[in-house]
Description:
Blueprint: H1 2-33, H2 41-80, H3 83-99, H4 102-117, H5 128-156, H6 160-177, H7 180-192, H8 198-212, H9 218-221, H10 225-245
Helix pairs in contact: 1-2, 2-8, 3-5, 3-8, 4-5, 5-8, 5-10, 6-10, 7-10
Amino acid sequence: xxxxxxxxxxxxxxxxxxxxxxxxxxxxxxxxxxxxxxxxxxxxxxxxxxxxxxxxxxxxxxxxxxxxxxxxxxxxxxxxxxxxxxxxxxxxxxxxxxxxxxxxxxxxxxxxxxxxxxxxxxxxxxxxxxxxxxxxxxxxxxxxxxxxxxxxxxxxxxxxxxxxxxxxxxxxxxxxxxxxxxxxxxxxxxxxxxxxxxxxxxxxxxxxxxxxxxxxxxxxxxxxxxxxxxxxxxxxxxxxxxxxxxxxx
Length: 249
């Protein structure tokens, strides 16, 4: 009982330490630069407590469930010996974790608002809701595709730098033709997708596969899936922008 309580208190304190720099920075600028008291201080303090509690629960969930499950499933799929099912699992995992990503939901909604304010939906069949859904599905599909390719790379022992270099060459070419309205969002989408839900499961998948396949080094081969997941959304969102806005060239 005492050891369990100590473990929980350590995790809560760890979550508090992670949030503390943000609290200090916000408090410093609010009190010494803006020089005004916090508006709605009780609500703000309650929100900070919720953030600490949420981070604590999230880390506990990662360590006790998500990370072990992702790693064990990868090992079991590798032992099963079916390339199709391993690759399909990678695609499904990438798609499902991304579509559930809170950051993606928020950013897609904001992008829809900005597009609506700029008059994108005044002419044409696409609605604001269709734009937001299309953007979320595009990014989720791009991450699913990225993880599937990353899994295949681990299985086939293909070169990671080769894929990354050529991926960014395609992105540079797409930037030339993409409409200006979508370029910033496209580049930001690479960071949106590598957030709280996607990273732990995808990392566990890569490490689990590399650990269970003979001749693979988990350090060399297990990492790199996140690089794929950061790259492909940029390209896919630019293609989505060309579909919505037309080319910018």
